């Protein structure tokens, strides 16, 4: 199932990435695609819901982060956002008018479980998402539900440091269980995390997203260790994903007939020059992005390129954790925005400090000799999708 779903996803992504770059793309019509092809829209809870303290919702990490003076340049926050909490019916009508037949949204953890596993399920939160899901289905729009898109109850950050602690695995499992039980009779596509690699890098290496932890040369934060914390938090994210997948596979999938996977932020890397050093740098940069999270989920361990560079800084999986990773996902989703050039920093000098790829001993750029790698907004060739082979059982 996982291999089939992944290959189908890559086929769709390949098709769209090629089609939209063609000069005749504006002549493409929906009728050119199979009836089963899904055209959709996507959002995240913090970005659109608003109602940040209504319906017994607690503060999320993003509420606290954006309310801190100086965090956001213009002082704005998602307190109201698009007011989706009050206007979801209008939003569903807008989607219906666009002709989409899929909608990917995330559930606010702080709305469903304001205190995590330390408190009760919030019935008003369950009611809101039930109404949203029912409204979508009434219009023939398939709900794709993400359990975590960057936001968590601030309660968990305050209690034990959230993703820095293995405690988060129990909390995420409880949250997933509650959602599967409440919505799984109608939701057939589940995503554990959306772009967890972004949340880890920005939250624990660069310090630009909550909880704003970092250390020089990546930034000057009040606390954090950019050389260690990204790997601790990723380990807990991967095992939280595995916990949710195990719960779904063991308790719900046979009855609910749904699928569960993960969605990653994907950047493809091409070598800046054709030297062996730059080719290896491109491979390392890739390994430190999507495979960092997906290899353990599919193969049971981190990429060898990461082990080679990081050594003991990279956590290991216990026998029990490897057992849990044995429950395989059904699909891998990709959000692809751009392709970059990578150059070597393992054998070469003069590399910038503080880039997200610094630990991969690679420096990245969008240009070669002043020429952009691709047209603005479309820096993807078919080569950027060949990474699918890494996780396909047919490779």
Automatic annotation (TrEMBL):
It holds the Pfam family Glyco_hydro_1. GO terms for molecular function: beta-glucosidase activity. One of its GO terms (biological process) is carbohydrate metabolic process. Residues 1-27 form the signal peptide. The keyword Lipoprotein does not apply. InterPro entries: GH, GH_1_N_CS, Glyco_hydro_1. PROSITE patterns: GLYCOSYL_HYDROL_F1_2 (PS00653). The keyword Disulfide bond applies. Keywords: Disulfide bond, Glycosidase, Hydrolase, Signal. Homo- and heterodimer. Belongs to the glycosyl hydrolase 1 family. This is Uncharacterized protein. The gene is LOC101776688.
């Amino acid at each position: 199932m996982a291999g089939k779903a992944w290959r189908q996803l890559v086929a769709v992504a390949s098709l769209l990435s090629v089609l939209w770059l063609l000069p005749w793309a504006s002549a493409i019509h929906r009728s050119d695609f199979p009836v089963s092809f899904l055209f959709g829209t996507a959002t995240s809870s913090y970005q659109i819901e608003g109602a940040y303290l209504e319906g017994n919702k607690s503060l999320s990490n993003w509420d606290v982060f954006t309310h801190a003076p100086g965090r956001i340049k213009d002082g704005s926050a998602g307190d109201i956002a698009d007011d989706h909490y009050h206007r979801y019916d209008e939003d569903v009508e807008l989607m219906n008018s666009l002709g989409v037949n899929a909608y990917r949204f995330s559930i606010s953890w702080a709305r469903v479980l304001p205190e995590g596993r330390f408190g009760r399920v919030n019935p008003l939160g369950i009611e809101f998402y039930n109404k949203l899901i029912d409204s979508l289905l009434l219009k023939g729009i398939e709900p794709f539900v993400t359990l975590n898109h960057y936001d968590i109850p601030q309660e968990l950050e305050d209690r034990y440091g959230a993703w820095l602690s293995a405690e988060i695995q129990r909390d995420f499992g409880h949250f997933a269980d509650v959602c599967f039980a409440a919505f799984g009779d109608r939701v057939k596509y589940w995503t554990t995390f959306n772009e967890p690699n972004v949340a880890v890098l920005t939250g624990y290496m660069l310090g630009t997203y909550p909880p704003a932890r970092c250390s020089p040369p990546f930034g000057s934060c009040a606390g954090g260790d950019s050389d260690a914390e990204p790997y601790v938090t990723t380990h807990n994210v991967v095992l939280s994903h595995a916990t949710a997948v195990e719960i779904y596979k063991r308790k719900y999938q046979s009855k609910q007939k749904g699928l569960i996977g993960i969605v990653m932020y994907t950047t493809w890397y091409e070598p800046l020059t054709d030297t062996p050093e730059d080719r290896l740098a491109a491979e390392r940069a890739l390994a430190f992005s999507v495979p960092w999270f997906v290899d353990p989920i599919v193969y049971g361990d981190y990429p060898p390129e990461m082990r080679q560079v990081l050594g003991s800084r990279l956590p290991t999986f216990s026998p029990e954790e490897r057992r849990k990773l044995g429950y395989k996902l059904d699909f891998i989703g990709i959000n692809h925005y751009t392709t970059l050039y990578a150059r070597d920093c393992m054998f070469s000098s003069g590399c910038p400090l503080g880039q997200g790829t610094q630990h991969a001993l690679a420096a990245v750029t969008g240009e070669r000799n002043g020429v952009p790698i691709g047209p603005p907004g479309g820096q993807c060739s078919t080569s950027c999708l060949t990474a699918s082979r890494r996780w396909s059982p047919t490779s």
